[in-house]
Specification:
By secondary structure, the protein is mainly α. Helix content is 50%, strand content 11%.
Length: 74
């Protein structure tokens, strides 16, 4: 859980959840390229994974966070 604290935000997600989200993010970026913006729900694990990816790779992926993901499309 140490790397989550480096993101300068207290998160309440388990380490294994955040690691799984980061693994999925890396796989998606390998297949589809680095996006400019990612829209996510209120999950702290998703946000922590994107911030960690930005730190590790020097990217600047913008996080668009909505409370309920299905509202982003209406």
């Amino acid at each position: 859980m140490r790397w989550i604290n480096r993101a300068r935000r207290l998160t309440f997600c388990s380490r294994s959840t955040a690691i799984k989200k980061l693994r999925f993010l890396k796989k998606a970026i390998r297949r589809h390229g680095v996006p400019e913006t990612i829209t996510i729900d209120g999950s702290d694990a998703n946000e922590a994974a994107i911030k960690r990816y930005n730190e590790e790779h020097g990217t600047n992926i913008i996080i668009r966070q909505v409370k309920y993901l299905n509202e982003a499309w209406s």
